[in-house]
């Protein structure tokens, strides 16, 4: 019998009434707003109401540097959450909402996998409660207000060539990357070049992911810098009268969404900021609620530990005030073999057959990446646990090789089979995480607010990425100077680089040394509260492939959805 | 004491549990999907489950040709619905969902007004249940699939200069009317000129408003024509593999939304197609449910009787199979005075003081418009009732003048004060509608399916608009020939013209005669199922004014919304 598809497994789920799932977190019905039958939004009053409840251990799930296929981080997050019940503990899971662009592009869905999924997966992978659509609407409302400001006389003196605010859509649509708007007649606005990003890349997405309250979200909207005057003064959303409308459009979106796993573990699904030009973590408000919802709050951070986890520690925890107790590093045999440099894994193509042969030495050869990512967790004073995410083609000797690296680094590890076995397949991991979280936490930021932007970049580049130094293009250097002069120097940095290497060169595997980080340009998300240096080509609007998932997603004769994997 | 604002009145509403509102329509809880606390979606199974329930009288609310301020048609629809209970009858109201673009543009909200409103008005005027966002997403998904088709080799041979499918956003954003996409490098797609319309103008909006079932909506998606090959063959959404994904994205949106009035009358709020290039009526599925929900189903059609009501009769009723029993024509003193040609009313400016002086003769002088619109209802075999929507500055002699015109035309009429008094202010109207609906209906379409497109256009132009004839531009004539050749000749027509005159010239008031309808071009919404000739400048993407509502909509210190009127 073939292993069933994710959608088949998800359709067989026995869902608990979602109000009962909330009740297990101590969240009463008066704090819930239903959206359909299987999802509720949690009112923000829950943060205050739960404040006196015991604090859960806070666990972030990160990974080694992934291959283009991903290493099952969401699946492990879900599996670990499910496993906690198997060892007698109550856990809440917190993940990002998937983006519809990629769902209809290459992925066909992102809700975990196998027997570790969030359900109903069709809802998760489509509109959910409309939060992403609210981001699209709020973002583009500001764009319309901005272009109307130019059209109506440009009172603030915006320099058309220094407008940084673009538009967004939650679609993979490459032709929107670079567009000219305002063509036609004089009544059709002021022509200029601009473009669209995918909604996940919107600063509005990062803002609602980082705000702790509705008033704070409103204030952050006002601080968004949309461009600069001819004399270099920043112009904000507040200045052009767009911030209030954006906050109104985002008011309901700020309430976290509650769903459940296949084993009825509560799952907070909220926000989905990009993992390179933004911080790639689910929302602060979800975690502020979830931190009082049981024994463990298990939250996922995007990409490898050099990316999502570093931002989790230095951006998200800085915004939330929460301190993590343990960090999981998901590792796979296939990715470590790829880090040996022997194999090349390409998205959408079968794995090279040689990679599937038993070869623990190759795993060890790629081990530098795992070692460095464990170190990256330790840099922040947090206990690492290595989750060895087992695949059917793995060999026990290869799992043992990963465990040996972990042991050498003084980190706990566990082989887990939650994809095939659900929570029961991750009980060993759950126990290891529980032990790690009991160790006294010595959580610390990597740099103080007061460090200069260059110091911050150099600290992350040197300590986390292992770079020998940082090279700034002239324009990047000027931008940094101007941000410091504008008073943005106290913000943390979110270094936009490839997620396929710890370095800024995607082709360098393992733990690259002897290289320097090239900062090509620097941009600011002042409302979200970070400065993001760009190191390499950052694609903020994906395209569709030759045969995208959109061609295969459809309704069957019963009106059920097919084609979501 | 000043009359309270719409928002103040709406905040004071005593809402009934929405499940109880549904129960009064005979809709059980198993058919409901909650969205927040005050809105439910109704599952489409309700259509079959209610099929044996008694059929309500079906009443469409139309109007004389409005001024740019609108004549209170939604308010009258809501007020009439409320009034039915005051005369011992059960009514359901059906209206369109407001568009967020105009809400943040000039209007600041559209949920009725005064004591005849749909509540909660903040929900109605913002995302509601996300149906418009689903339209945006589905429409732009097809756009992305289309541009990807060009990029990946253009197997279908689409002529880049004959692509008719654009993009949409629910924002008033004039610079998006005409854009060039695909700039950048070869990897950024094929450059071409295109543009964005507002979401209400999307063919997807018209499709989900006209479909009777999920499979029918899916089939209509497939029939969308996105462009033509170099040899003039139509290329459909099905051909390029986008229709299934669109149907999946729109699956939940097809379920009608249930809200309530200030007096707890059930209100189906569903779809919001444009009133000029589309048919301007709420959804067929909502009416298929509401027709079995009580004694009266009161549904609104956009603009004057020459526009929304004509399309209601010839497009919406053709699609639904439902037959109307009565039609309300909303008339106001100010609009009839404007139709006298003496006064000019401009949106956003105060009324001319001379217009407010008592002057029944001016009302009579503008009466030709009312007479023609009553005739336009009668053309379809339906009993007209004139609703004299009273404003504070009106004089009784002026109301009497309107009543005299109605009587001369053999139509019932009633003065109504539902804005100030709620349902109690429209009981006389309710009685008149009830009487009219008891008359034997002789409902008929204006033209048969088999008539040629030119015949259909000429019948509407001659009989409804009072034109002496139709002039076709050469390109329009060629388009009509090509649509007939492509097999679209059996579709009804939706003539896109100004709503500010019965003619195609907005400056002609009253009931213009001695003019000819100029058809500049013709377009096709094959999925929605109509051909739309364009007569004049049709703006499908509004702009923002110098001081748009977006500048004033905000959250107050308690997180409540301010600035929605």
Automatic annotation (TrEMBL), chains A, B:
Residues that span the membrane, as ranges: none
Keyword Ligase found: yes
Sequence positions that bind ATP: 67-74
Keyword terms: ATP-binding, Ligase, Nucleotide-binding, One-carbon metabolism
InterPro entries: Formate_THF_ligase (IPR000559), Formate_THF_ligase_CS (IPR020628), P-loop_NTPase (IPR027417)
UniProt record similarity statement: Belongs to the formate--tetrahydrofolate ligase family.
Protein's name according to its UniProt entry: Formate--tetrahydrofolate ligase
Organism of this sequence: Pseudonocardia eucalypti
Gene: fhs
């Amino acid at each position: 019998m073939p292993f069933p598809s994710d959608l088949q497994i998800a359709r067989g789920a026995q869902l608990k009434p979602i109000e009962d799932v909330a009740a297990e977190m101590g969240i009463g019905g008066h704090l819930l707003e239903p959206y359909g039958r299987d999802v509720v939004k949690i009112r923000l009053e829950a943060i205050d109401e739960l404040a006196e409840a015991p604090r859960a251990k806070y666990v972030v799930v990160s990974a080694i540097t992934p291959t283009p296929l991903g290493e099952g981080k969401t699946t492990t997050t879900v599996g670990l959450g499910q496993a906690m019940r198997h060892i007698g503990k109550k856990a809440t899971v917190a993940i990002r909402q998937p983006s519809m662009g990629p769902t209809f592009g290459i992925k066909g869905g992102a809700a975990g996998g196998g027997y570790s999924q969030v359900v109903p997966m069709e809802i998760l992978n489509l509109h959910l409660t409309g939060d992403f659509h609210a981001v699209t609407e709020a973002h583009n409302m500001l764009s319309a207000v901005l272009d109307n400001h130019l059209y109506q006389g440009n009172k603030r003196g915006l320099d058309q060539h220094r407008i940084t605010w673009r538009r967004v859509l939650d679609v993979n649509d490459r032709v929107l990357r670079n567009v000219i708007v305002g063509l036609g007649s004089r009544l059709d606005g002021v022509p200029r070049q601009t473009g669209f990003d995918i909604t996940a890349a919107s600063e509005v997405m990062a803002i609602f992911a980082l705000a702790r309250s509705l008033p704070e979200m409103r204030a952050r909207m006002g601080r968004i810098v949309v461009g600069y005057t001819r004399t270099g003064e920043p112009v904000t959303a507040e200045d052009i009268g767009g911030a209030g409308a954006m906050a109104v459009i985002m008011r309901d979106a700020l309430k976290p969404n509650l769903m459940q796993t296949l084993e009825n573990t509560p799952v907070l699904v909220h926000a989905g900021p990009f993992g390179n030009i933004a911080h790639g973590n689910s929302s602060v408000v979800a975690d502020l609620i979830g931190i009082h919802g049981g024994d463990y709050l298990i939250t996922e951070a995007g990409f490898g530990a050099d990316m999502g986890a570093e931002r989790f520690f230095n951006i998200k925890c800085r915004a939330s005030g929460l301190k993590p107790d343990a960090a999981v590093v998901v590792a796979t045999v296939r990715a470590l073999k790829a880090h040996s440099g022997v194999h090349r894994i390409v998205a959408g193509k079968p794995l090279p057959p040689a990679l599937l042969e038993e070869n623990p030495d190759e795993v060890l050869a790629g081990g530098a990446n795992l070692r460095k990512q464990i170190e990256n967790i330790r840099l922040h004073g947090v206990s690492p646990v290595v989750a060895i995410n087992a695949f059917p083609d793995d060999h026990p000797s290869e799992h043992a090789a990963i465990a040996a690296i972990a042991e050498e680094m003084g980190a706990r590890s566990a082989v887990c089979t939650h994809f095939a076995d659900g929570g029961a397949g991750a009980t060993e991991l759950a126990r290891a995480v529980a032990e790690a979280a009991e160790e006294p936490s010595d959580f610390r930021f990597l740099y103080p607010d007061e460090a200069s932007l260059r110091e911050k970049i150099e600290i992350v580049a040197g300590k986390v990425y292992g770079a020998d130094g940082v090279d700034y293009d002239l324009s990047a250097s000027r931008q940094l100077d101007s941000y410091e002069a504008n008073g943005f120097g106290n913000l943390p940095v979110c270094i936009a680089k490839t997620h396929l290497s710890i370095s800024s060169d995607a082709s360098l595997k393992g733990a690259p040394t002897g290289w320097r980080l090239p900062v090509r340009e620097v941009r600011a998300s002042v409302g979200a509260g970070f400065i993001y240096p760009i190191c390499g080509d950052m694609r903020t609007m994906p395209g569709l492939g030759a045969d995208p998932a959109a061609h295969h997603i459809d309704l069957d004769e019963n009106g059920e959805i097919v084609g979501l994997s």
